[in-house]
Amino acid sequence: MVDLISNDIRFVGTLTTTYGVINQNLAAADNIQIGNTWNAIYVGINRANYLLQQSDRISDPAFPKASTQAQARTLRALHYMNLLALWGGTTQGYGYTGGLGVPLRLTPTTAIGPETAAIPRSSEADVAAAIRADLDFAIANLPTTTTALPASVAAANVITRNAALALRARFELRMRQYADALSFARMVPVLTTYATSTPGVSSPTSVNDAIWQLYFSTTDQNQYAFYWFSGRNEFDPGLSIAAAHPTGDRRLAINVATGGQTLKYTRSATRDDPFPVVRYSEVVLTIAEAAAQTGDLATAITQLNLVRTRNGLAATTATTASAIIADIILQRRLEFAYEGMYWFDLRRTNTVQTALPTYTQTFRNLFPIPFREVNTTSGTIAQNPLY
Question: I want to staple 274 with a disulfide (CB 3.0 to 4.6 A). Which of 61, 120, 213, 225 is the partner?
Fold first, then answer.
């Protein structure tokens, strides 16, 4: 949905009243896909909360309680990051005074009654504090590397300390806390093979710079390729993304393949393309952007050029902070195409209306709270302004 609203994905299918209107940034509060996404995220939060509650009751010393809870809290942090990114903040972006939050549930719903009573939206600041607390716990209690995995399981399928560090850096960048973003990104160990590797296409087991990815199999399938290729074929690359690639960019053949599709998700029969949640490329570009924002242009250029060189491009010609950051945002768009990043980059840099000038209604920079949440709680969960 976030790639549809950013126009990096073009809607070409039949679900006009749901995905189609999202592609035009005209979604209403009764849009079923927006409602389903809100619901799915809160289901994930409730599962994490339940695991945390129940694992607290396990006293067996053989049970790795701290690392198990750290993984659950990383998941919960990611869920709240996505909720804030879609429905929270202000029309300018994130981390501004008066930023809107979402209902903050940190205990599970196990029975009908007080646990299921409606609660109002917390402030953006309160949700941000919960996200930071979860990621701090994860960073303190997760191992840096995975051990004793079966040969068929990619290491990136498991949440590690590096994934939590990268997510914390992502969150601080989003909240415009650039010094903190730089600090956390620099804690992620350098991937020594990165500069000599080439842009990776998803394989059945791994993305070549994945720090953490969602794993799928023939018995636990996703619908990425199904929606792009065979089956529904609802999506094509957006009309502007091909032209956004500089001449010689190796990513063009991946992002906009022959026939107007993408090679990131192709396994429509087995439906086991992994989905990258955190990649090392993001760490590199976070260091670059945070360095540029804090005045270290030399570091910003060095890091930016790592990504450019890996993709067959010459070194950047940008010399000012604003030009370097503009190049970084472009590289992020092309590097993470169809991975759900570009819309959040536009929002956090307050450039939605610049990049997408037909989006004149700035209140739509935030998604509408699903109608059923407002209606069934009699307004306890307040709608976003002007919807």
Answer: 213
